[in-house]
Amino acid sequence: MSDFNDDYKTQLLAAAQALFAPATVEVGKPPRSRRVPLFAAIALAALALAAAAFAATQLIGVGRPVGGSRPQHQAPSTGVGVPVPGAHSPHGSVRLLSISVADPSGGLPWGMRIVRTTRGLVCVQVGRLLDGKLGVIGIDGEFEDDGLFHELPAAVLDPYTCSEPNQHVLYGAVAMPAAAAMPGPHPSCWYPGTIRPAGSEQPFCPARDEREVVFGVLGPHAVSVTYKAHGSLHTVPVSGVHGAYLIVLPQSALATPENGGLTTSSAPLSHFPIYYQPSVITALVFRIDGRLCQTGTQLLTGGPSTCASSPRAGHPHPGGVPHTNVALHARSVAGGYDLDLAFTAPVAVNNAYTAYAVEYTLPQNAGCGAKGTAGLPIERDLARGQLVRATIFIGRQPRCHGTLHGRVIFGHQPDALSGPAPGQTVGRFSFQLP
Question: Domain boundary at 306, 335, 357, which?
Answer without folding.
Answer: 306
